[in-house]
Design brief:
By secondary structure, the protein is largely without helices or strands. It has one domain. The protein is flat and about 35 Å long. The protein is built from one helix and no strands.
Length: 37
């Protein structure tokens, strides 16, 4: 098992490379902060 965690914060610079990292992923985890409007 391999776990990679990438925190790109939705930055536009990383949008083009994101598919390279989740292409073979079997799950996705979405994390967000409810205290920051």
């Amino acid at each position: 098992m391999q776990l990679n965690i990438w925190d790109t914060a939705g930055d536009e610079r990383f949008r083009s490379i994101m598919p390279l990292y989740y292409r073979d992923a079997e799950i996705a985890l979405l994390v967000f902060d409810l205290t920051d409007p």
